[in-house]
Design goal:
Distance between the termini: 42 Å
Structural class: mainly beta
Strand content: 25-35%
Shape: elongated
Order of helices and strands: EEEEEE
Strand order of the largest sheet: 2-1-4-3
Helix content: under 10%
Number of strands: 6
Largest sheet: 4 strands, antiparallel
Length: 76
């Protein structure tokens, strides 16, 4: 089951919830109002040369849409 991150627009509380992929949403545990699923940053875990774990966010990915990386052919 994936861990989803939620944001409550009513009380501005952020929380995580372990849910099946078929779940449609969650209520805020703070105020019990409907919360919205938030976009979260994917973190990669790698083992460095010294054997220590490195918990760092992945680098930003290049765009491909209009004016992102020239993928649209507009010449920018």
């Amino acid at each position: 089951m994936p861990l989803y991150e939620y944001f409550c627009p009513t009380c501005e509380h952020r929380f995580d919830k372990l849910q099946p992929m078929s779940a449609t949403g969650a209520d805020c545990p703070n105020c019990e109002q409907p919360a919205r699923r938030a976009l979260s940053v994917f973190a990669s875990i790698t083992r460095g040369g010294s054997g220590e774990m490195d918990f760092s966010p992945m680098p930003p990915m290049g765009g491909g849409g209009c004016c992102g990386a020239g993928g649209c052919g507009c010449g920018h």
